[in-house]
Design goal:
By secondary structure, the chain is of the alpha+beta class. Strands 14-15-21-18-20-19 form a six-stranded mixed β-barrel. The longest helix has about 80 residues, at about 250-330. It is elongated, with a radius of gyration of 44 Å. The chain starts with a helix and ends in a 5-residue tail after the last helix.
Length: about 1000
């Protein structure tokens, strides 16, 4: 009992050490669990939402649409739980200019169901549900009406004409019709699209740019009123995926098994079958056209034959009349009237030659008959020519049918192809990676500080330890006094850390996340396993340090322990050998130098602890500086143009005319911009950037006219980058990179995320959904957005643009029919404000789809999520620095109580004692800061590896002010600790402190 009471008294006496260990554990556990828990809560809530709304696991698209046969084939694939055939149609409407939207049919099989936020779901034809983004942009509300125009309306006429001409090139066959939606619409609800959780009022909405291949909005409509038997896509749910987290590797493996099965046999078979359907439909149209033409020609021939028969009858009648009259005259001149009467009673028989001669004579003598014969002959000739021409045309169509109908292509995609899904996953993964890296520093500092504190605690009780061991107490029992002390401190600190880690930090992060993404049903959850392991990790580390300290002391005999520890032997320090410096130092300076360098453990612990904390602060500030400069570097340094204007293909000429007429442009470059995807297949065969790399990035595909490839460098800074060690990169000379016809130039932001480098092979998807394998000729420095630059000729080679094969030899790229230059990069005159205002005014023009001012983007770029994480890291690092300095200062004082008492006996005033002790701590702190600043920059330079986000590359930069802030903050913490330590020095009693232990 006395042993326990003494142990408790010892614990109470060492309350400062207890608080230090508890606080370090609290901070470490909070960092370890907090960021993880915030990301985990977001992952879980999002996964539950996806399961509830039936977000598809696999989506199948086809260049020729999907038929009922395709849907039936997908249902038979092993592992497919549900298949939903979907119909959609792109429409346009007027909303402060021409805007586009996708009319999406709400599926009836429970897949990709929109989440109702306000109003009700549409049920009748003409009713729609819209997203909150549309409500915000349009100012409309529930009950408002809207009229839309199908984008395919203008092309339907040409398709009909082609059908009448029997070309057979339509992508639909005789029985399949393209989807068609009502055009008079009424808004009845506001919904959240499960495929895109971006908050319309958040960061992504402010900086996102959608090019011509994507519509501005999505409207959801019921099946009522939708016509057409051809499906735009098919969405699938895979068996077993509902029980797995969509963000886990096991989910990806389950889905991949099904996509591999589809790619293996179903895809190939249905592509061939679909093309054969199109060929059969084309042949049927040709046969029908031939039958219809033959019928028309037969009717025309019958009409001509009837008219000719009538003409011949009329001529024959005249011939008969003339022949009868001639015969009657001859009879009148005869012998008797009876013979004349008999001759006049019958028509004389004429031979065929005589009759034909008389016909020609009669026709030639009559202008009316001559004209009638010519008309009949001309009609017959025209009919014969039409028959020959039609037959030749039909034969040509038959010969061209196979070449005119392209190969049908299927695209099998998983959730990674959804831009909103991949952005959310990448954001959370990157923040979670920070949460996995920083706790290592906290753990190392906790072990170091625990070793320092517990070693001093055991050393102070060495005589008591010797007494207990001499009295027969086991060494384990004696060591338990300190092990239980450290364990209790870790458990209390860890428990408080779990509260902060699973409640405080996640709540803070989720507030920021909800500003970027809409996550219904978000709630905070506790992970018992991870929380327990988090505490256990620090318990093991601290207990290991405590055991080490106990073993170091208790391996001595009880007699040795009960005697005072022999003072450290005197020794020279290196500075003493530098005589010019040493001889000029004062007495207290020499004492301070000896105290600092003779006690190596204290030197290492203090400098190491302060350096670690300073490095964390610098690292946090490095993230802040990097994010703060992203917009300026991208939109003022890399993008040299001031304005990007994008239009629909049909309005491209009007857009360029409008911009030219305004007189604001000093130079410009016409380009084509499409939204697409860049994919790397993880084959590990050397074609990809790195073995095993895989993934997909949404890109902005920029095609440049062949005649103006050299002008690209005037609008965009082209600098090649190469991969360095530890995720860093080297930047080449400006202007040393040129776009050519041998490959594409990929933005650094996309290349870094996918592990792509010069020489890699990637799969590109253009705005029409056509995929092609391309060679990466170079990686260009780019921080925001994922631009891929391609020449006009290489674009034609990749995507089979038939009219672009010989663009190099064309007179002008603008005269080529290969591509429509739907965008313009331009440099403007005037201030930043006037440029921003001009871009806003352009968006009001009907020919302009989007106008982006680089000046506005540079000023308005924000990254709230990373800013929140930076603030959190800096705050925790500052707290750790304060605890470390407090622990070291108190340990330093407790080790030197007799020394301080001696100084007081020698006549040192309290202020002089403060100065004597604090000077050593300040020097050690300065040494730690000097070491921590470059260490922080080194760690910050590795952040590029951890922060792998879509369309963002973190080119780490630390401003001089950040170094100053980190140094000043650490020194300020050291001064603050002095305020706590000075009263301890004042309370030292020289008499009691100098009493002999014996």
């Amino acid at each position: 009992m006395a042993f326990v009471k003494d142990m408790l008294r010892m614990w109470v006496h060492s309350w400062k050490r207890f608080i230090s260990i508890a606080m370090i554990t609290l901070l470490g556990v909070a960092v370890l669990t907090g960021i993880y828990a915030g990301c985990r809560d977001a992952f879980r809530s999002t996964d539950r939402f996806f399961d509830a709304q039936g977000l598809h696991d696999v989506q199948v698209l086809s260049t020729a649409g999907l038929s009922n046969g395709d849907i039936a084939a997908l249902r038979k694939v092993n592992g497919v739980a549900k298949v939903q055939a979907e119909r959609s149609q792109e429409v346009t409407f007027d909303l402060d200019g021409r805007k586009s939207a996708t009319m999406q049919e709400i599926g009836t099989n429970g897949i990709d169901q929109p989440y109702l936020q306000e109003g009700r779901m549409p049920k009748k034809a003409g009713e729609i549900a819209v997203t909150r983004k549309f409500i915000r942009d349009s100012g409309k509300r529930i009950g408002s009406r809207l009229t839309v125009t199908p984008e395919s309306a203008s092309s339907d006429t040409s398709d009909t004409n082609d059908t009448n001409g029997a070309d057979g090139t339509n992508e639909t066959n005789g029985t399949d019709e393209a989807p068609s939606f009502p055009t008079k619409l009424t808004i009845v609800g506001v919904v959240l699209d499960p495929q895109n959780l971006s908050n319309p009022d958040g960061y992504s909405a402010m900086t996102s740019f959608r090019s011509t291949a994507t519509t501005d909005y999505t409207f959801f409509a019921p099946s009522d009123g939708v016509t057409g038997t051809l499906y735009t896509s098919a969405t699938l749910l895979v068996k077993g995926t509902a029980a797995e987290s969509t963000f886990d590797e096991s989910y990806e493996n389950t889905v991949k098994q099904v996509t591999d099965r589809i790619d293996g046999t179903v895809k190939t078979d249905r592509q061939k079958a679909r093309r054969q359907e199109l060929l059969d439909a084309g042949n049927k149209k040709i046969v029908d056209a031939r039958a219809e033409a033959d019928k028309k020609f037969a009717d025309a021939q019958s009409q001509i034959d009837a008219n000719r028969q009538q003409f011949n009858q009329q001529v024959d009648q005249i011939v008969s009349m003339q022949a009868g009259a001639a015969a009657a005259g001859a009879a009148t001149n005869g012998a008797n009237a009876g013979a004349a009467a008999a001759a006049g009673a019958t028509t004389p028989q004429l031979d065929e030659t005589t009759r034909e001669t008389m016909r020609e004579t009669i026709i030639a003598a009559s202008p009316e008959l001559t004209q009638a014969k010519q008309q009949l002959d001309q009609a017959q000739s025209q009919l014969n020519e039409q028959k020959a021409s039609t037959e030749q045309t039909l034969k040509t169509k038959e010969n061209e049918l196979k070449t005119s109908i392209p190969q049908v292509r299927w695209y099998v995609q998983d959730r990674q192809s959804l831009g909103g899904f991949s952005a959310l996953k990448s954001d959370l993964d990157s923040i979670q990676s920070l949460g996995n890296a920083f706790p290592i520093v906290f753990l190392l500092v906790a072990v170091m500080m625990s070793l320092t504190a517990m070693a001093r605690m055991v050393e102070e009780d060495r005589s008591l330890i010797g007494t207990y061991v001499g009295l027969g107490y086991g060494r384990l029992a004696v060591a338990s006094r300190y092990l239980l002390f450290a364990l209790l401190a870790c458990l209390i600190g860890g428990g408080l850390g779990l509260i902060a880690g699973f409640l405080g930090i996640p709540a803070f992060l989720l507030v920021v996340l909800q500003g970027m993404y809409v996550m219904p049903g978000l709630r905070l959850e506790y992970d018992w396993l991870y929380g327990s392991l988090g505490i256990a990790l620090f318990v093991v580390g601290v207990l290991a340090a405590t055991i080490y300290a106990c073993v170091q002391e208790m391996r001595q005999t009880p007699a040795a322990l009960m005697r005072p520890k022999a003072p450290r032997a005197g020794s020279r320090i290196l500075l003493e050998r530098i005589r010019p410096v040493w001889n000029r130092m004062g007495f207290l300076g020499k004492v301070t130098a000896r105290n600092i360098f003779r006690f190596k453990s204290r030197l290492i612990m203090t400098v190491g602890g302060v350096a670690g904390c300073t490095a964390l602060i610098v690292c946090g500030l490095a993230i802040n500086d990097t994010v703060a400069d992203l917009g300026i570097k991208q939109y003022r340094d890399i993008y040299q143009y001031d304005l990007m204007v994008v239009s629909d293909d049909s309005d491209a000429s009007a857009m360029r005319t409008k911009v030219a007429s305004d007189g604001r442009v000093t130079s410009s470059l016409d380009v084509r911009i499409e939204s697409g995807d860049l994919t790397v297949a993880g084959s590990g065969d050397g074609d990809s950037g790195k073995a095993g790399s895989s993934g997909s990035e949404s890109i902005q595909l920029v095609a440049v006219p062949e005649k103006h490839l050299s002008n690209l460098g005037e609008m965009v800074t082209l600098q090649p980058v190469s991969s360095g060690i530890l995720g860093t990169s080297g930047v080449g000379k400006t202007g040393s990179l040129k776009l050519d016809d041998d490959g594409v130039i990929v933005a650094q932001s996309a290349a870094s995320a996918l592990g792509v480098k010069a020489g890699s092979k990637v799969r590109l998807t253009n705005g029409d959904g056509v995929q092609a394998t391309a060679k990466v000729s170079a990686v260009n420095r780019n921080l925001i957005g994922s631009d891929v630059y391609v020449s006009e000729t290489y674009y034609a080679k990749l995507f089979d643009s038939k009219d672009a094969k010989n663009t190099k030899n064309s007179k002008s790229s603008e005269d080529s029919e290969a591509l429509t230059w739907n965008a313009m990069l331009a440099k403007l005159s005037g201030s930043d404000t006037s440029q921003t205002d001009y871009a806003e005014s352009l968006e009001e023009d009907s020919s302009v789809m989007k106008a982006v001012s680089c000046a506005h983007m540079a000023d308005s770029f924000k990254f709230d999520l990373m800013g929140a994480v930076v603030a959190l890291i800096v705050a925790l690092a500052g707290g750790l620095a304060l605890v470390v300095l407090f622990t070291l200062a108190n340990t330093n004082v407790s080790e030197r109580v007799r020394e301080m008492a001696t100084l007081k006996v020698l006549g040192f005033f309290d202020r002089e004692v403060h100065h004597y002790v604090n000077r050593e701590m300040m020097i050690l702190t300065v040494m730690g800061v000097i070491l921590g600043l470059p260490l922080g920059r080194l760690v910050g330079g590795m952040l590029t590896m951890a922060l792998n986000m879509p369309s963002l590359y973190f080119e780490v930069e630390v401003k001089p002010l950040s170094y100053v802030i980190a140094a000043v903050a650490t020194m300020a913490f050291a001064l603050l600790v002095q305020l706590f330590v000075n009263p301890v020095l004042d309370r030292i009693d020289p008499i009691s402190s100098l009493k002999s232990v014996e």
